[in-house]
Design a protein that fits this description.
By secondary structure, the chain is mainly α. The protein has a domain of about 140 residues: Butyryl-CoA Dehydrogenase, subunit A, domain 3. The protein is about 65% helix and about 5% strand. Strand 4 and strand 5 form a beta hairpin. Helix 14 runs parallel beside helix 26, helix 15 packs parallel to helix 26 and helix 16 packs across helix 18. The longest helix has about 35 residues. The protein is globular, with a radius of gyration of 24 Å.
């Protein structure tokens, strides 16, 4: 098993460096709070006050990021690590203490009458202009200093704790399969096994295991969504979705255009799923346990080394810089590849600005799908590599654009693999691509529909596992139509997705669809313009922390506010579907 190294952060919780960082963080928080209480009472000498506070904030934020992420990354591969849990709790407590200074700063900034003039007169302030303007815009959603501090503290024992519970329960759940006990990640990986009996047995074992933790995880979901509903009402957001759109730095009309295009193109995805069902011998649509079934003659299994070499080769077709970043990730041990007890499921990439490195977690099983997942997460790391060129306060990008580089890198690998394939190999590669696109368009739509209903119903009643299962089935039927066998759906899809359990980030689903289709549009431009377009893509990624998503898209000449753009990106997938249907006649 190949594991990552966290030594670039800290070597251990007992190390002098880690312990010293905690002491320094407390000192900087005290200084920052004292400064805010003393200075943010009038607008005298505003330029120096803003600059001083930003510099102090960046130093503090960098230390918090390093220490916090060391704790969370440790827990992600060792769910029962008591030291990591203790210090994560400590970091959350420290983080909540920064609320006073940030709240006072956010309320003070809008009181400066000539703010725009001051910003334009100073080099540093001009550099962070978007950051400051977002603070002014967001100040209307702030509550009193005391309320913000209480909310920050209570969230640590509220939504944050509920999210940790879901992560720990799913990471440690034992699944009875084939006369042995395996992890949830391991049994879910069997959904792409070549043997149909294995896939069905794994699906049944997965379903049988969920009731052991369903009640507890349902409480977690209720806790998170209840907290979000309460805070949205207090802050003046119309809904959790309204808040999510604001946090995404996008217009609601842009999201509406995306969702409507997705719905319009569902019949094309249904055709693909029905054809796959036919090819696998099913007559009533595709059962959920065969959604990830491999197809075609190519049954190659990849070792970790083979997967990485395959990615290097294909990343090279875009740019030497992308290949070099992937090689660095391997050589410097940024990646934790394979599943094991106590390691969380799924995959993610954490970009760590203070050390200008990333860490990637996957549960690689050797399939081509696993290769694509690696490419996806390395795309996140590439985005990080571009954003690291900016100041810390300019490095926070939103969820929709967060999935752009990752999906773009998936597309590079898939298209490069497809280019030289014979017909049988094309079926395999196309099916892998369509499998992913279907998840990101159709399944994401089902999750979007589900989460909207959860937020709505949570306002009036707690939701038990039976209710959540029924809501999930309903949303899957709405998105998938009759392309799935309604006797074999996945009612517990709400339980195993960590995306639902983040109090500060609701609707972590539509960004995947945004990222896929935005990346398709960008890739189409790359094909048209060639190598000169590489620097435009790099600039786009670099500036994602300083613009709305509409303005980011305009850097490469794309208008994402119109249905036409999303339809044109979906047409790229339709061509793949049509080719798949032709090859599998």
């Amino acid at each position: 098993m190949k594991k990552w190294s966290l030594d670039a952060l800290f070597t251990s919780f007992e190390s002098k460096e880690f312990q010293d960082s905690l002491v320094l963080i407390e000192k900087l928080i005290e200084e920052s709070n004292s400064y805010a209480l003393k200075e943010f009472n009038d607008t005298d000498d505003s330029i120096n006050k803003i600059k001083t506070f930003i510099v102090k904030s960046e130093e503090l934020r960098s230390l918090l990021i390093k220490s916090f992420i060391f704790c969370s990354l440790t827990i992600s591969t060792d769910a029962m690590n008591e030291e990591a849990k203790k210090y994560l709790n400590k970091m959350q407590q420290l983080s909540s203490k920064t609320t006073l200074a940030s709240t006072r700063f956010s309320k003070w900034i809008p009181t400066i009458d000539n703010l725009d003039e001051l910003i334009d007169s100073d080099e540093l302030l001009t550099e962070v202009k978007y950051y400051i303007n977002r603070i002014v815009e967001g100040s209307k959603y702030l509550l009193s200093d005391g309320e913000e501090i209480i909310i920050s503290k209570l969230s640590q024992t509220g939504s944050s704790a509920w999210g940790q519970l879901q992560s720990e329960l799913t990471a440690t759940l034992k699944v009875d399969y084939d006369d042995k006990k395996i992890t949830l990640s391991e049994v879910r990986n069997l959904s792409s096994d070549k043997d149909p009996k294995v896939r069905k047995a794994a699906y049944e074992a997965e379903l049988a295991a969920y009731p052991k933790i369903a009640q507890s995880v349902a409480y977690a979901l209720n806790g998170v969504k209840g907290e979000v509903n309460t805070l949205c009402e207090l802050r003046g957001f119309e809904s959790a979705l309204d808040q999510a759109v604001y946090q995404s730095r996008m217009k609601k009309s842009t999201l509406d255009a995306l969702i409507e295009s997705m719905k319009e193109y569902l019949p094309h995805f249904h055709k693909y799923l029905k054809r796959k069902a036919e090819l696998l011998g099913h007559k009533n649509g595709l059962p959920y346990y065969d959604i990830f079934a491999p197809m075609g003659e190519s049954s190659k299994e990849f070792t970790v080394d083979e997967a990485m070499e395959y990615i290097f080769e294909n990343f090279r077709t875009f740019s030497p810089g992308l290949e070099a970043l992937a090689r660095r990730a391997r050589d410097e041990e940024w990646i934790d590849y394979t599943s094991r007890p106590g390691k969380r499921g799924g995959a993610f990439c954490a970009n760590i600005h203070p050390i200008k490195q990333s860490r990637i977690l996957t549960n690689f099983s050797g399939s081509f799908s696993g290769v694509i997942t690696l490419a996806h997460e390395l795309g996140h790391a590439y985005h990080g590599d571009q954003i690291f060129k900016e100041r810390v306060v300019n490095s926070s990008y939103t969820m929709p654009v967060a999935e752009t580089a990752s999906t773009f890198c998936e597309t590079i690998v898939k298209n490069a693999a497809l280019k030289d394939a014979n017909d049988n190999e094309k079926i395999t590669i196309l099916e892998q691509s369509l499998k992913g696109s279907t998840q990101v368009v159709v399944d994401i739509l089902s999750r979007f529909i589900f989460e909207a209903e959860v937020f709505d119903k949570r306002k009036t009643t707690p939701l038990n596992p039976r209710m959540l299962n029924e809501m999930m089935i309903k949303s899957q039927k709405e998105a998938y139509g009759d392309s799935l066998d309604h006797d074999y759906l996945m009612p517990y899809a709400w339980l195993n997705k960590g995306h639902y359990y983040r109090g500060g980030l609701s609707f972590y689903n539509f960004p995947y669809a945004f990222g896929l289709l935005f990346a398709k549009g960008i890739y189409a431009e790359f094909i048209k313009q060639g190598k000169p377009f590489v620097e435009k893509v790099n600039l786009l990624l670099q500036k994602t922390g300083q613009m709305s998503v509409e303005d980011v898209a305009s850097l490469v000449g794309l208008d994402i506010s119109s249905r036409e753009f999303w339809n044109s990106s979906l047409e790229v997938i339709v061509k793949e579907i049509d080719l798949f249907l032709e090859l599998t006649k």
